[in-house]
Structures are given as C-alpha cells and as structure tokens.
Amino acid sequence: MLSRLILLLATLLVSAFALPTIEAKGAKFFTSEGKQWFIKGIAYQLTPDDPLATPDQCKLDASLMKTLGANAIRVYHVDPSANHDECMSAFSDAGVYVFLDLDTFDTYILPTAGQPQWNQTQYDRYAEVMDAFHTYDNTAGFFVGNEVLNVGADSVAAPYVKAAARDMKAYRDSKGYRNIPVGYSATDSGELRPNLQNYLACGDDVSNSIDFFSLNAYEWCGDSTFEVSGYQFLQKNASEYNIPIFFSETGCNTIKPRTFQDQSAILGKDMDDTWSGAIIYEWIEEANNYGLIQYGAPVDPTATGDNIEGGFVRAGTPTPIVPDFENLSKQWATLSPTGVSQNAYSPSLKPPACPSVTKGLWDIAPDAPLPTIGQKVANPQSGGQTGTSTAKSTGGGSGTASSDSASSSETKTSSGVKANRDVQNIKTGFLFPMLLCLVAFAVFICFWRKEKDGWVPAPSTLVKMSPTKSPTKPSSSTTKATRVYHPTSPPTLFIRPRPRHR
User: Which CATH architecture has domain 21-333?
Assistant: First the structure.
C-alpha cells in the first residue's frame, strides 16, 4: 500500500513539472493547456549524427538556452537506437520543445535526375525516429523533409514529400501515438513560392496534407524593414493559410553583428496573427559564422581529437558570442505574443486550391494522385504520365497517357526517331544564331577605337543600365539561397553559401 502511494505521488510530481504538449489546430499551435504557442527556437546540431545522446552537454546547453529565452530547438539528425531520455528531460526542464527531422543521411527524399523516391527503407527509418521520440511531452513536431525542392524543376518531388507526410501521419495514428504535428521545411525559393506551400496543404482530405509548413528564409539582413526585406510578400502568401506556418531557419549574417530585428516583425503585429514564430540558425559557431555560442577558440581545420570537427570544438561549456547572443536575447525578451485561447478559436480558413501547372515552374497537375510506397515517376518529362505512376507531371488521370498531353503522335513516337529529329533541329538551328553573333561582333568592333593603353569603348557606345531593370537571377545551386529585395518589387533569388545538414 505504501509503495503504491509513493508511486502515485511520484507520478503526480512528474506530471506537475512536465511541459504541456503541443498540437496544431487550424492555423495555430496550442499547448494542452489551451494557450496559443509561439516558437522562439534555435537550430541545434553539434555533431552530424545525434546531439541528443550526450546528457551532460544537453544540460549545459539547455541551461544557457533558458537564459537566452529559447523555447524550442530543431534537430536535423538523430540515432533512433540511442537513449535520449536524459537530454529530452534536460530540455524539458528548461522549457524547451524539440522539432525533429525524420530523415537521416541516407533516407532523404531527393529530386535526383527527376526520379524522386519514397520507398520502404525510407518509411521504416522515419518510423524508427517517430517510435523513439513520440513518448516525450516536449516533442513538438516532425519534419518529413528539409529543402527537398529548391527550384521549379524539382516540383516532380513534391508528391513524394506529401506522400511521406500522409504515410507518417497514418503510422502515427495506427500506433495510437499522440497527435504530434508532421510538416515540411522549405527552401525560400521565389520559383516555388507559393505553389509548394499551397500544394502540401491543398485537398479536402486532411490525412493527405501536412500539419504545418515552415520556411528557411534569410531575407531580413541588418537594419531592414518589413517592407524592404520582403517579409511583406511572405505575409501576403500566408495570410489565408489554413495550417500553422513558421520560420524553420532564419538569421541572415551578411551584416555583422546580427541584430535579429526580424523577430519584432515575426512575433509582433505585422505577422503574429499568421506566423507561429521562428527558429534561429544556429547554436554552435562553425565556419559559416552563424553561431550564437562557441565551446572554445577555433583550432586548425586539420586538427583531430575528441569533440573536434572542421576546426571547431563541439562540446564543453557554451560561451555566448558577443554581441549576437545578447542581441537575440533582448529581442525575445520584449516579444511575448499571447494570441488567442484554444477555446475561443474556431478555424475558418479552408485548404488552398492545388496549384495549376506552370511549365518549368510547377509540373504537378492539381488532380495528380499521390504515389504509394516504392512507386517511381514513370516519365517525369512528358506532358502526361503512362503506366501506373501517380506522381505525374501535367495532364489528366493515371492509366494510359492522358488525352491532354502534347499530342498522341508525340507520345507514340519511338525514342530513336525523336532523337534523330532533335539532332536535325540542332543542326538547322545552330548556323543562323552563329552568323548573327559574328555580324554583331563585327559591328561592335567598328565602334571601338584604340587608345595608347589598349582597346576601350568609344564614348558614344557606352550603355547605361536602366534603373527599372531587375538583376538577372543566377542558376540554382545546392548552396543556401538568400534573397535581395527592391522595396517595390517581388523577391529575386541570389546565392549565398551556407553548409546544409546533409
């Protein structure tokens, strides 16, 4: 009898100090206590494999995160076979929730060569991570992908991301797990926005949609504003979104020190009615100079030893980087949106319409069924899909090639004949542009005059750039993208290196 009483008291004591769980309702996050929840998060990946398997380090970091004012972390990779009890408890004690990526280094959904996959191996690995973390009250959500799509041509992979979310939600429900939100972390790409955002949430069957959408955005740099930074466009695209949306990475570092002024927009009157907060990139200082803390002075990049990787110490007592750490702490200290209580909130926003096909920018038909596990794209380059593939590009239903594809004769043409025709087109179309270039070059030379120190253009031939011209967008890259904005124009993509957790 006494032992039962002690056990009951211990259970009540643990429950009294446990964090309330997080759930998604409509376009907002709520705690199990009925309060709207806003994210003040940090990207946390000290080591490639699993930063949540070293209890002593977690306790040190969690304590300083509490001082910073953080209430969430994002972890990109974990080892589901490791014990995470102590680390998750340490972060829970500090009031910190955890967002986890379900994928690992060998299970990403990738749009490789137009042939993305969602297979049984990926499914099993995702399920293992969910199995390992569903029991923790401070598990806030799972990501089924991070920056899978980066340019419009990658849109063929979108159905596979959505299928992964569908299947992991079904797995969660079949196991009787808590209704932990499942979502996606997207590249902030002007080519994909807002098509991908809308696609992942569209449709009447919510079991096929993500529970939240998030964006890795580095648009607000230095002393910018809501209008100049481009955040006004992000807000416009999200104003009628029916599920929670937040920044899964942010914190531009092109202007030092970082002041994190964007937090006042995200967690303030400009955006807090729509957005659910932000996760700052990142906790540890690395070669990319995004860190908020360091565990010691940088060492030689070739140095080896315990907890040393890439020229940086990755364990020990965290020391704030001045003044970035303090700047973020001050921002968060002044921002405490209350939102709305769950009882007073009645979701009214409807799922967005599935985007229509825009050749080269969005190649998924709005009525295209989602692929099943192990199903591949049959012909991602054609107008319609053939066979049993359901992740088709443009065109009508599945089965045989749809009638609204380019033409039936084109579909039936053998690859050999089509290849010969393409070669003929190249041959006949090559000479005229070449001759035109030669003539243009000759005319250009005629307008040049020779000076004593070399060839320079004559004054009459100097060309002024029109102030209304937008800068040319460079080709896509696997490096991190950031955007530069003109106050009165939509965003233009520029490329800035930032190592990705892959």
Answer: Alpha-Beta Barrel (3.20)
